[in-house]
Each structure stands twice: as structure tokens, then as C-alpha cells.
Amino acid sequence: MTKSYPHTRSNLVQKKSLGQNFLVNEKVYQFMVQEIAPQKGEVIIEVGPGEGVLTEHLAKSEARIIAVEKDHRLIPSLKEKFKDQKNVTITEEDILKFDPKKLRFDLFADPRSNLGIFNYKLVGNIPYYLTSHLLRITLEDWPKPKSILFMVQKEVAQRMTAKPPRMNLLALSVQFFAKAKIVKKISRGNFRPTPKVDSALVKIIPKEKFAFDKLFQKNFFQLAQAAFQNKRKQILNSLTNNLTYRAALFVQGSPVSFKDFLNQKMAGAGIEPTRRPESLSVEEWERITKAFWPEQLSA
């Protein structure tokens, strides 16, 4: 028989504003621990520990657990629960404002890598309203983790892991920095209160060999965002209509039109201009960016 955890143990009413739906299936917790695989000497940052059930499982390892909880009502019970476990730290903070650099990850650098991979992992049950923003800051701004395991709405997980011809901006924003795959689908009945949608666990492994600087990233997403404003249109038409940052690309007074200019760049990248944005892979978007800004490659 599968063990479950009553969601009323702390006698708190879940906050809809925080997207609180607590997981109550023991087997799913065990699966999460297996996937995150905490090791001695690692740092595990847990986003939104809630009542500390996953925290309790993770704490059995010799990893250092940093549990970041926004709901101040849960902090006293969490601190009481883990007061005797020196490897668990409970932090009351909004994860979007959390500064992981204060944890001195330089002390936890992975000795096997000289590519900027840090010896920490990230795990959490992420509400819908938080997903895109949290992914952006963790992949773009935080020290690069060894792995990320997020529980998100199933539809969001499918968007994150999409491939051509179903690519989208969320998929690009994740897969530009990392490899992502759904490792388990979890029905809504495993949560209390029961949400209206199913969930999925997504495992994200940041790319070790990431060769693009901040300027390349900016240009990459500038092109993609312009194209996906009209994702059903041909990419050439979408870029012609929506790409506003023309000054760095196109010299006014040129003998060719802006659309012809874009067409030339697309041809240089080996991309057929009649294709639709959702049909392009991450690698093809990288080729387009290099074709549009070739001077960056020799800088």
C-alpha cells in the first residue's frame, strides 16, 4: 500500500496565491530522491519545501540541504522539524530574490570539471506562475548547477521539452542552455488539495560546453522572440514585421530592402525562409544568430 501524507498536518490552509498543492504520495518522493541522487559534499537547493517531506528524505544523505520557503507560516514548523539536523538550513525568502552566490559555491566547485559546473543541484515543486521566471534566472544568472529536477504542470513540461515541429519560446529558453526531458508524469490525484491539472517531473542538465556570451544570448532571443510573435507565419515574414532592432543589422540607404537583407542572412545560415519558427531546432537558431551577427564570432 502506498503511503500518503495528510495535507492538514500543519493545520494551514494552502495559499492559492502561492500555487500551493502539496504532494502526498510517498513513492513519488522516493522517485524524486532517486533522480536528484544527493551525494556527500553536494549542496541541494530545494524550492518551496512546504511541510518538509522531501526535505526529510534529502536530509538522510550527507548533502547540505538549503530549503528556501516563501510562506512565513511554514517557517516555524520547518525549523522545529530540522533543528537537530546540521545539514539542513531553512531560509525564509522568495526564490526569485534568492542570491545563491551568497552560499559561496566556489567552496563546492566540482573538482572533475573546469567548465563552470558547480557542485550543487536544484529541486522543487514549482507553481505555474513561477515556472518561466525561475527557469530564466536559474539558467541565465545563477552559478551553473549539476542538475535541476522540477515538478511542473504537465502541459508546461511538454512545452519545455518540445522538439520541432512544435518548438516554442519556453523550449528554446531552456534548451539553449540545457538538455531537458520528462522523467515522470504525475496525476493530479497525488496532491492535496487536488489541482485541476496533472503534473510532470522534468530533469534539466545544463550544457557543460556552453560557448556563447551574453551578447550572443541577447541576439539569439531577440531573433526568436520576434519570430514567435507570429509563429504560424513564415519566419522571413515574422522577422520582417517584428524585428525592431534594425540599426545593428541593416544600414539605411542600402540598395536592398530590409526583407531582402533578411532573406540573404537566412540563406547564409542555410535556412529556408518559408519555414515556420516552430519548425526550427536550437542549433538552427544558433546558425541564424551567427549569420546575422558574424562579427561576434571573430571578436
TrEMBL record:
Specifically dimethylates two adjacent adenosines (A1518 and A1519) in the loop of a conserved hairpin near the 3'-end of 16S rRNA in the 30S particle. May play a critical role in biogenesis of 30S subunits. PROSITE patterns: RRNA_A_DIMETH (PS01131), SAM_RNA_A_N6_MT (PS51689). It catalyses: adenosine(1518)/adenosine(1519) in 16S rRNA + 4 S-adenosyl-L-methionine = N(6)-dimethyladenosine(1518)/N(6)-dimethyladenosine(1519) in 16S rRNA + 4 S-adenosyl-L-homocysteine + 4 H(+). Coiled coil: none annotated. The lineage of its organism: Bacteria, Candidatus Yanofskyibacteriota. Its main location: cytoplasm. One of its GO terms (molecular function) is RNA binding. This is Ribosomal RNA small subunit methyltransferase A. It is found in: Cytoplasm. InterPro entries: KsgA/Erm (IPR001737), rRNA_Ade_diMease-like_C (IPR023165), rRNA_Ade_Mease_Trfase_CS (IPR020596), rRNA_Ade_methylase_Trfase_N (IPR020598), rRNA_adenine_dimethylase (IPR011530), SAM-dependent_MTases_sf (IPR029063). The keyword Cytoplasm applies. It comes from the Bacteria. It comes from Candidatus Yanofskybacteria bacterium RIFCSPHIGHO2_02_FULL_43_15c. GO terms for cellular component: cytosol. SMART domains: rADc. Belongs to the class I-like SAM-binding methyltransferase superfamily. rRNA adenine N(6)-methyltransferase family. RsmA subfamily. Residues 32-208 form the Ribosomal RNA adenine methylase transferase N-terminal domain. S-adenosyl-L-methionine binds at residues 21, 23, 48, 69, 94, 125. Keywords: Cytoplasm, Methyltransferase, RNA-binding, rRNA processing, S-adenosyl-L-methionine, Transferase. Its EC number is 2.1.1.182.
